[in-house]
Amino acid sequence: FLDRTPYYSLIPSQYPDLIEYGGNDAIECHDIWLRYAVEWPEVERRLSEINREATIRGIRLDVDYLKESIKGLEAYERKVSLDVPWTSEINPKTGEFYKLGSLPALKRAVENLGLVPPPTFKKDSPVFLQWLADHDDIPFIAARQKAVAASVHLARLRGMLETMDPDGRSHPPFLYFGAHSGRFSAKSDAGKSSGNLLNLPRKPLFKGVPDINGGEGIDVRGMYIADSGCTFVIADWSQVEPRITMWLAGDLDKFELIKKEGNLYQMNAVEMRWCESGCDLKHTNDPLYKTAKAVSIGATYGLGYVKFVDYCKGMGFDLESLPPEKWPEIGRRENFILRTAARIKGDFRDPKNVHKVGQVFRAMQVIDDWRRANPKIADRQTGLWAQYERVFKSRVAAGKSTVAYRLPNGFVKRYFDPHLAKKPTVEIDEDGREVQTTRIEMRATTVRGEEPDYISPGKITENLVQCFGRMLLANVIVEMQEEHPEWPYILSVYDEVVIQCPEKDAEYALSELSRVMCRGKRISEFTQGLPLEVEGCISKCYTK
Questions:
Q1: Max Cα–Cα distance, the chain, nearest Å
Q2: How far apart are CA 352 and CA 106, in angstroms?
Q3: What stretch of H or E contains 525?
Q4: pLDDT tens digits, 15-62
Q5: Is beta strand 185-186 parallel, antiparallel or unpaired with respect to 174-175?
Q6: Long-range contacts formed by 333-342: CB under 8 A, 24+ apart
């Protein structure tokens, strides 16, 4: 074996040391297993096994559609690259042509126009989006964005093709308990992307581009298809994280209101006094419904005013901007938020600032309305956030090295090295001057030995809710395979489960999966009072 691996720089006399090292490593791993295996719960062992079986089994790919999509995307990349001027220039440091996504070349091209480049060119960055809005007449910026997007997605599709087995099946692996919350994470295979199913685009890519599948774009999810004679059964929980948060906070009355209004977002809109009960906000005022949905999800974890504006952009819409005549009186609090958090410079009523200032004021209205309507979560004295903060600070005061929160299913979430720290910060006063100050913040780490980081009560809430959601998912997957081993588990993405079954069993399989996800015997033991709802579908390909 060693003779076939020339990258080893060992001489023969060193081989015994290598063998001894490897042997000792195996022995120590075995000792760790014997010592701690008893603490690995039965449901977790079975979930790990099911996950590995799914990876080995793989998922069939629509190979013809995949290859045609690659061909079209390659043509599109060549075309848009013609409008990126620096791809024909030589990098003086390397002597090679600048790449499509080259940031140094992009910054130099912007500077050559006499402009100051933004601090980041990330497509979803609010700073870049604002800069782009101010300089939307630069043709090569849009071309570069298109070229980079094409390159990224080409790498994804080629990776899927390269890792496909002879039977046309992809084997996208999931790393069991990949995050500290217990959620799966995607893991690449030997440096190749075998398809990260945790972040697949929901909508077709490049829709409307004639070169790509006749303008229909690329449905990456749709490339994963069921076996012949079979179909996928796909189900996910509805508004599961906000529901879990309300349940943990003991706000059970809200669930009756959800039934009355039809969904959680409509319920919150009514509770915030944005609309009358039963008004069907989704179909009568879609912009307000989207705002209600965004705040129902984002504010649950303590999202601030300025970040909420960006959060709405991430959900696909621009938060309404209040016109200046509707702005509140700008006192010390408002000035602090606008100057220090939003980093707005100059006169607030300057035309270049009016839209952003108006959005921040609208965000303040929205977040404050949600907090007033959800005191069992957000009240500074009695709410869920306040309870978690008191537990944290009491452990710090007692000199403890960990903070532990026990969830209703018995799972214990631990934070290591908890402490309070003074953090130097800068405030901007009414005159725009920077003032050096400090703030006291909670700090801890979720991984023993790593550097502690800032942690808020809202972040603790998010961690605990996602831990609990992961435990729900684990028990559902295991129970479905216990009761229906003939329907193999395919994959799960956060709050979604996908199984495969013969076409003739599809309706029954969907009803069974929905039943187990809402009131299965495994989760019923620790979800008393938590009403779960499921949305599901039957499809020959993976879809959302």
A1: 84
A2: 25
A3: none
A4: 888 889 999 999 999 999 999 999 999 999 999 999 999 999 999 999
A5: antiparallel
A6: 334/361, 334/364, 335/429, 335/430, 336/427, 336/428, 337/305, 337/306, 337/364, 339/427, 339/428, 339/429, 339/430, 339/432, 340/426, 340/427, 340/428, 341/304, 341/305, 341/306, 342/306
- Rounded (5°) CA angle 295-301-302: 80
pLDDT digits 0-9 by tens, 60-97: 999 999 999 999 999 999 898 888 887 777 777 777 77
How many angstroms separate the CA atoms of 8 and 256, rounded?
67
- In which region does residue 58 sit, left (phi positive, over 0), alpha (psi from -120 to 50) or beta (all else)? left
Residues with Cβ within 8 Å of residue 258, at least 6 apart in sequence: 264, 267, 531
Consecutive H or E run containing 455: none
Q: State the pairing for strand pair 534-539/496-502.
A: unpaired
Dihedral, 224, 227, 233, 239 alpha carbons, nearest 10: -20
For tokens 């390659």, the residue is 74
Distance CA 127, CA 117 (A): 11
What residue type is 471 in one-letter code? Answer: M
Looking at residue 491, what DSSP letter applies? E
AA letter at 91: N
Q: Where are the beta strands (DSSP E) in 503-540?
A: 534-539
CB of 335 closer than 8 Å to CB of 427: no
